[in-house]
Amino acid sequence: MGPLTYKDAGVDLDLYRDAMQRLPTLLRRTHGPRVMDLPGGFAGLFRLNPGSRLLGRAYRDPVLVAGSDGVGTKVKVASLAGRFNTVGIDLVAMCVNDCLCLGAEPLFFLDYIALGADNPPLIADLVSGISDGCLQADAALLGGETAIMPDLYSGDDFDMAGFCVGVVERKKLIDGTTIRPGDVLLGLESGGIHSNGYSLVRKAVFDSAGLSVDDRVETLEATVADVLLAPTRIYTRSLRKVMQRYRVKTIVRGMAHITGGGLEENLERILPDGCRAVIESGSWPVPPVFDWIAELGQVQDDEMYRVFNMGIGFVLVLDPYYVESVQKRLDETRTRSWVIGQIEPGATGVEMNRS
Fold this sequence. Notes:
32% of the residues lie in helices and 26% in strands.
């Protein structure tokens, strides 16, 4: 046996270099004047000036907000469909939406991609989606890491993780502590399944029903791939429209990103003692994609509401006086919303009234 090379071990450095050379343009398109140019640097630079105006506001006591997340087994669906440019949007959405829950403005984003083999076109597609997501979120894609690990990932398997940093004025931090009985729950529409529950989705669609990604779902007027790979909605611009209108008054007292655990578990995370969220399940239209999944897998209602967002991707808890005004601002960003419940006095928790 001759001398071993890295390529013999499954990592082609020339192919890796080719993949990396495709990425700078995808990063630069997301950069604003606050990103400092550092060609060949080991890290990204972002200029944070406390006196600068972000989101139309001057920050006097800025607090950095950070969040990290992944896309779960939705990447398996992307692999089956050979369609990789939307899961990057999902990755950004999962991280950014979490930061938005505290009233933060997204500043920059970092990604981590792990693969079993060098694949420049795949990497380019994934980062292209991440770049698109950052544009939607108004966040700079500052950098990332791509790891080739043939002993951990087989074939075309890959995984992704993201990391978002945002900023909020300390006095404007929204953490749910001011939520009170009488407040209203305003649900913002989701873009579909988003990025949670895909192990159950794949079990129902591919195992139980025996469908393939190319099969057409007549009731949804789309292919299985189209339905399952619809990207997660990013709520940055919708919430900015609301926050810019109320720069002095704090009308939003709590926010929840509806991910794994559904409405009940995610809303419970922001409720203070003595406040109970009561949700009226018939107060918004549940998208037909969830009926389709439930039918294919014979999934019970309780399980559906526990696993999926059921059409509500984000919830605002706010003063009832401002509901109509907030909905008007959301409409301007083409984000539908519904009053889905209210806060009542009682033991801390969430109650779902099924109609």
